[in-house]
Design goal:
alpha+beta, globular, 11-stranded antiparallel sheet, 8 helices
Length: 288
């Protein structure tokens, strides 16, 4: 894998890599996703590609936050994530990507810094675009940079009604370690109790993208007939940490369109706390 660095708002960081079928299978196992397509090498979990671009994301995000002049913040966390799917990511594909700064925007209580990761196949056809947003609590910027983020708000009047589908997932004791091994995301608060407590948590927490990946797998199974290639958009806001050794309940609401496609809102809850909120899961009609 090769990368090269550009200035944060002009080009970012480019790279090349392989959607390795064995890595796909390992990712699925790390998030307890038993979809047979991933083990057979015929499809890729929706958030697998975050591992390909993770190192470049960190480089570009740090440069963008510095270039935008983010200051006075007390804590930075993965605030939200929004993915658009244009073409299927097929195991065995050699792909290339461009990770670049997109925006630094003021928000309620802080600043949202967003990086775009555009992943294409070797022919140059765009497969996936991630909008990866970090929230700087209490932060300020001299001026906003970039365009507003796409909306994926789940209306409270919908959230207060019974969900159309519900799935309850097991979160294993070693979930964060397995996810870190499969993706390279070894955030210290996910693998070290002392570091987690130093950050104000009672014990280790799950990587946000691990929680998101587990929820995404449940949504593919319950709403897309187990076929991830039918998904055109997946977005969420991270609202609280998930802890290992417990359960995760994913609730979804049909927001519009035919029952077999259209738009769904979702959230995920652990032990009475909403850990994922304002989720959006958009489907194509079967066969399209």
């Amino acid at each position: 894998m090769e990368s090269r660095m550009f200035s944060p708002m002009e080009g970012g960081r480019s790279g090349r890599g392989l959607v390795d079928p064995d890595a796909v299978a390992a990712f699925a196992a790390a998030v307890n996703d038993s979809n047979v397509r991933y083990q057979e090498g015929t499809a890729t979990p929706l958030l697998f590609t975050t591992g390909l671009v993770l190192a470049d994301y960190h480089q570009v995000h740090g440069g963008l936050a510095a270039a935008a002049g983010v200051s006075d913040w007390s804590l930075s966390v993965h605030g939200q994530h929004d993915v658009s799917y244009l073409e299927p990511v097929v195991p065995g594909t050699h792909c290339r990507w461009l990770v670049s700064g997109r925006s630094a925007l003021r928000s309620k209580g802080g600043v949202l810094v967003t990086v775009s990761a555009r992943i294409s196949d070797d022919a140059g056809d765009l497969l996936v675009e991630h909008l990866w947003t970090t929230y700087y609590r209490g932060g300020t910027v001299p001026a906003e940079i970039g365009a507003p983020l796409p909306d994926h708000e789940l209306p409270e009047e919908v959230r207060s009604t019974p969900p159309s589908t519900t799935a309850t997932l097991r979160v294993d004791r070693d979930q964060a370690f397995r996810y870190g091994g499969a993706t390279g995301d070894r955030a210290t608060h996910a693998i070290d109790d002392d570091q987690a407590r130093a950050e104000g948590f009672p014990r280790k927490i799950l990587q946000g993208m691990c929680t998101f990946s587990m929820a995404a797998g449940a949504l593919v199974d319950s709403l897309a007939g187990g076929d991830p290639t039918r998904v055109r958009r997946l977005a969420v806001r991270f609202s609280a940490p998930t802890h290992p050794a417990g359960e995760l309940t994913v609730n979804a609401w049909h927001l519009g369109g035919p029952a077999a496609s259209g738009v769904h809102g979702f959230e995920a809850v652990q032990a009475g706390t909403t850990v994922l909120k304002h989720g959006r899961f958009e489907l194509r009609l079967p066969g399209l």
